[in-house]
Structures are given as C-alpha cells and as structure tokens.
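Listing 4. Sequential folding, example run.
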Amino acid sequence: MSNNPQDHLIHRGNLRFFLAGGLLLGLVVFGIIFLNDDAAVGNPPADNGSAFTHTNASELLERTPDTESMEPEDLELSLEDLILAADSEEQLRALLREALPDREDAVIRALSQIDTDRFNLYWVEADLVDYLRESYGPVEGIKRLDPYLREEHPVLWNAGKNLLRLYGAQADAGALRSFVEDPINRSLVNVVAHDLGIQMARQDPLSAVATAEGLEGVSHQKMLNGALMEWYSQDYVAVAEYLNTVEPHAKYDDVTNAYVTKIKYNDPAVAMTWALAMQGTSYQRETVMEVADVWFNKDADAFQSWIDQLSDEELKGALVKQYDLSAN
C-alpha cells in the first residue's frame, strides 16, 4: 500500500462512492419488493376516479349478481350498490354504459336513489337520454322512466324533460297534441309546457294555441305563452288578429305587451288601445305610461285630445300630472 497521503484520500473517496452507490441500489431493490408486497396484499393504488375505465367497469359488472337482494355473507356488491358507491361522474358513466343494455331496470332504480349533491351529473343524464332515445324513441323512453318521474327525482326528471323536448322538436303536431292532452303525462308536460308550445307553434301556430287553450292549470298558461310568443315572432299581425277574436284576459298580456312594444312608435294611439286592454298584470300601468311617453313626444296635441276623452279618472289624473296637461 502506498504511503502517499494523496493516495489515501483518493482511496477513501472511492470507498465512500461505492458505499453510497450500494446503499442507493439497496433502497431501490427494497422499494420494488415493498411495492410488490403491497400490491400482493390488495392495497389499491391512489385513484382520483379518472382511471376507472370501461374495462374495469365491465370486470366489476361480471362479478355482480343479477339478484336484487343478497345474503349478508355475500361479499359481492349488487349493481345498485356499485352505482350508488361511485365516487365520480367518470366512474358512474362507465358503469352505466356497461350496464344499461342488460340491466336497465336496476340502473334506473339506482339512479332514482342517487345523491345528486355528490358530484355533477349532467353527463350522466345526457348518457341516459341518449340510451333511451336510441333504444326506444322519446315517448317510449319517457315511459321507461315511470313511475320515478312522478317522484320528480332530479336525474330521471331532467332526463324525462329532455326526452320530451326532443319529442316536441320531432313529432308531428297531431301526435304531440295527443301526448300533451293525455292526463297521464300532465306532470311532465307542466314542466316543459312553454318549450312544447314553442315547438308546436313552429309547425302549426293555430293548432298549438288551440291545444294550449284546451289545457288547465300550469300547463295552460305556460304552453299558451310559448305558442303565442313563437307565433308572434313569425307573424305579429296574425297574432293581433287572433287576439281580436277572443275575450280580453290576463293570460294574453305577455303577447299583448310585446305587440304594444312593437307598434308604439309607429302608431301610439293603437298601441294605447292595446295597452289598456291588458288585464290585471303588474306591468299594465307601466306599459300604458311607456306608450303615453312616446305619444306625448310624438304628437302632444293628439295625446291631449285623447286625454280629454279618457273615462278612467285615476289614469287621467296621473297622466295630466305627469305631463303637466290641462284636464277637461
């Protein structure tokens, strides 16, 4: 061995290097063995839900019995339990896409119980709508959701609404009218009545209005508003002609107000006649005052002449005060 101090320093440095390298290699080998042992005893890797693919959803479903109830000692999860235990929208969608074709009833039953506050279910609803529409068509798809629609569970209720909107956009006016008028469908129709009124009016405005006039309760007003406003967007003169054939009523106030807004600048006198025909809505007086403002600024003399003929003393007093006019 050399007696040179420099050689001793080099030797010690090499020794440290080899010792460090050996320690590092040992740690790596130990880590590999430890991780393999961990996997062997069934400890799952960390998972944020995104790794829950169609493949392992399918594997889980293959282990899931078809029976609705299980013995307490059975360690397998039922399909409903699997769905209710999903901890992300991705997991739930994967399970549904695998399960729906063969176990539809169980899936729908589970969705009627799911906690809607756990995570966003928008795409779950969309997947369900797509499946039912493609498998049965909108109307039969809606029927598959009974009786859960009557309970108004959010996931199934939203799916039913979207199916009905799809149906309204596709069905002929006669078939849609029959569906809407069937009392069995009334609760669901109530929710989307406005949309249905619009969709029906795009095909046949008069039929849509007639259908709405034949309904009762919430559906009546919502569908009538939708139909009339859609018809108004197509031909506001035709709507005015229709309104001239019916008794004034508050249910026509929305479309009447729209018509007044449309014509008040060109013909404030006629617009005022329509505004005064509005019945009982909170904005009727506001509409009258808006027309008065336009009329006064356009033709103050004609406005004064109309004021002189006005029989509503309360309104006359308000207008005289508003525009500093004389009252005859």
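-- end of first protein; second protein begins --
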Amino acid sequence: MTNQNQPNNDKRTRVTIREEGLSRDEQSVLCAVRLICMNYSNPACFTWESALETCERDFGAERGPQIGMVVMKCMRALRMTRTSGFNFTNLACPCCREKLSDHELAFMRLLTAQRTGNGLSRQTHALILCEGADASRLLGHMEQLAILLAQHTEVIRQVPVRPPKLKFRFSS
C-alpha cells in the first residue's frame, strides 16, 4: 500500500508544508497519516500507536483518539480502494519531512476542500486518491474528520484567554 519517498526519487520539486499553508491541526493529521503509512510498510514497528498518541497530544484526551481513529479509517479506505501504492514521506528524514508527496498533497487538499465546503475540489481529489474507483467510503470518513476538527477548533475558541498578570516594580 505504501511507498516511502526517497530523496531525489522524482525530478520535480515537491510542495512543502509551509507552501501549502497547512494549519497546526492539519500538520497533526499529516503526521498521523505518515505514521499509519509507516506501519503499513513495516507492521512490526507499531507506529499506529504513535499516530494515536500524536492525535491525543494535539487534540486532547477526548477528541484526539476519535480523530486518530478516523484518520486510520481514511487510510484503510484508501488501502482497500487503491490498486497502486500510496507514496508518503518518512518522518525520520529531516531533509524530506517538510515536503509533501503527491498522494499526501492530494489527501491534505481533500481535507481542506471538505473543511471549506468546496465540493468540486473534494470530488476531484477523492477521485485522484481512489484512482477513479468508488470514493464514497473515503468521503464519508473525511467528512467525519472535518467535523471532529471543526469541533476541536470551536472548543479552542471558547476557552477564555486570561490577560497576563502585570507586575509592577516600585523603586524608592
């Protein structure tokens, strides 16, 4: 299912996380995707556990595991639908991990389209990721993921921000 990107394995310049403008939440999802892909490529490494831990750390004890499981469902849907591999970037490579593979880029753009309600982009990226096969399972899981991320963002907005305490120093 997965193929790790090796340095210089293709001639074109890959898009970076910064260039794509991924939010902190989206970067956490990308990290979970990569860890799940690492697990598919080497099942003995149990990086799926790290994917869940990453989600719990970044999204909290309540929503984190839910988000992690939905990301796993997205990847499983892709695994069952695609006939070719899913290229991903190895997190252990410091020079590569800031870049997105074509498949990671399509996955993140699908998530962005789902979150923003861009139906045409959503369908296009799902079709690309599923290689023209039925994308309904992937789209259903992606919708769940977008809802969970929106709920997480809403909770963050509702947390009151306390003004910093001011300390005065008087001299005589």
